[in-house]
């Protein structure tokens, strides 16, 4: 009731203000009311987002916030300042070099920017054919070439495809790499799905989640060497690590099945006992 009265009062104030100034009340209502969370606490807006969604920014930059909000970075709380620096809370200093703002990094410097978080991947990338090509020509493939810039998704072997890889070279070698990765990637996906099933069943899987995450990261780091033979040699090692997780998951599924069967047995037992007691009571009465 209180919020309903507040809404009516705010609507009336907007309409009165619009009539007095000759402004379009629909625009004012939309900007000042519909876009603000009046029913709760005020949401702190990032200067970066506010600017990039405004009319003052170039049209080609306006889609960046929406792309970022659909990304794996957004899902993991990686914000604009984490990559571009600056101060998203201060409009005057948002793009100040003193606040660490670097803007759009030079093409050849992009791996170093990404490598601030992806340390192991950076090392393997720099030693790979991709990294050496970038160092030699300043135009070789970098992180953005394969992963994109803002709408970055969770990595998978789908990223290795003919359309992307053939922009720089033939797809044959990349295809061999994808085949070498396939079995391990499939095992990782299957384990991830099993862990989700256990969670839905109410099982705490924090330890297994962390182990799978560490193994997956280590495997993806290895991939950035772009070394087919090294990936093949490491397959057995990762298969053993994943096998240990699978064994724990299988054991948990067996325990759940046992509990379900045990519960079903007791339910059946109590049902039979109830029927027996009922029949005996009828016999006693007769």
Can you give a write-up of this model?
With 286 residues, the protein is mainly alpha-helical. It has a domain at 180-260. It contains 14 helices and no strands. Mean pLDDT is 83; it is low at 1-10 and 12-43.
Summed up:
The protein has 286 residues and is mainly alpha-helical.
SSE order, as H and E?
HHHHHHHHHHHHHH
Q: Which segments are poorly predicted (pLDDT under 50) over 5 or more consecutive residues?
A: 1-10, 12-43
First-to-last CA distance: 65 Å
Outline the biggest β-sheet. none
Strand content: under 5%
The count of β-strands is 0
Mean pLDDT over all positions? 83
Class from secondary-structure proportions: mainly alpha
Helical content (DSSP H or I, runs of 4+) = 55-70%
**Mass-distribution shape:** elongated
């Amino acid at each position: 009731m209180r919020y309903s009265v507040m809404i009516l009062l705010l609507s009336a104030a907007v309409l009165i203000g619009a009539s007095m100034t000759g402004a379009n009340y629909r625009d004012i209502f939309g900007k000042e009311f519909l876009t603000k969370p009046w029913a709760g606490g005020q949401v702190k807006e990032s200067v970066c987002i506010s600017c990039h969604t405004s009319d003052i920014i170039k049209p080609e930059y306006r889609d960046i916030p929406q792309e970022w909000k659909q990304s794996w970075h957004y899902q993991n709380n990686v914000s604009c300042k984490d990559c571009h620096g600056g101060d998203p809370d201060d409009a005057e200093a948002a793009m100040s070099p003193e606040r660490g703002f670097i803007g759009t990094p030079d093409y050849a410097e992009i791996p170093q920017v990404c490598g601030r978080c992806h340390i192991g991947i950076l090392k393997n990338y720099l030693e790979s054919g991709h990294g050496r090509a970038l160092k030699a020509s300043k135009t070789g493939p970098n992180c953005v070439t394969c992963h994109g810039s803002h709408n970055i998704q969770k990595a998978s072997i789908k990223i290795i495809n003919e359309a992307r890889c053939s922009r720089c070279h033939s797809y044959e070698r990349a295809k061999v790499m994808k085949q070498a990765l396939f079995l391990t990637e499939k095992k990782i996906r299957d384990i991830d799905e099993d862990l989700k099933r256990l969670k839905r069943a109410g099982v705490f899987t924090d330890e297994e989640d962390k182990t799978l995450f560490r193994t997956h990261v280590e495997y993806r780091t290895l991939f950035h060497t772009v070394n087919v033979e090294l990936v093949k040699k490491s397959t057995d090692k990762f298969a053993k690590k994943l096998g240990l997780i699978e064994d724990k998951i299988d054991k948990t599924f067996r325990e759940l099945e046992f509990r379900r069967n045990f519960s079903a047995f007791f339910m059946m037992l109590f049902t039979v006992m109830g029927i027996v007691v009922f029949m005996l009571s009828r016999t006693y009465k007769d």
